[in-house]
C-alpha cells in the first residue's frame, strides 16, 4: 500500500513539473510570437520606405553605354 502511495506521489510531482515546463514553454512561445510580429512590422515599414525612394538619375545598367576600353 505504501508503494502505491509513493508511486502516486511521484506521479503527482512529475505532473507538477510538466505543468511548470509547459507554462514556461508557452511563455517563451508568446514572447517569440510578439518578436516575430514586431519584425514583420519592421520589414513592412522598410519595404514601404524602399518603394517610396525616388529612383536615381542613373540609367539602368542595360542602358548604360560601355566604357571606352570596350
Keywords, separated by commas or semicolons:
70 residues; mainly alpha; 1 helix; 73% helix
List the helices and strands and how they pair.
Elements: H1 2-52
Overview of the molecule:
There is one protein chain. The chain has 70 residues and is mainly alpha-helical. It has one helix at 2-52.
Quaternary status = single chain
Q: Categorize the overall geometry.
A: rod-shaped
Q: Could you report the average pLDDT, rounded to the nearest whole number? A: 90
Structural class, from secondary structure content? mainly alpha
| Distinct helical segment count | 1
Largest sheet: none
In short:
This protein has 1 helix and no strands. The protein has one helix at 2-52.
Amino acid at each position: 500500500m505504501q508503494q502505491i502511495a509513493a508511486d502516486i506521489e511521484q506521479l503527482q510531482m512529475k505532473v507538477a513539473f510538466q505543468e511548470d515546463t509547459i507554462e514556461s514553454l508557452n511563455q517563451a512561445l508568446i514572447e517569440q510570437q510578439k518578436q516575430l510580429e514586431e519584425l514583420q512590422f519592421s520589414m513592412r515599414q522598410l519595404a514601404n520606405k524602399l518603394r517610396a525612394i525616388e529612383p536615381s538619375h542613373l540609367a539602368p545598367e542595360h542602358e548604360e553605354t560601355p566604357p571606352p576600353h570596350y
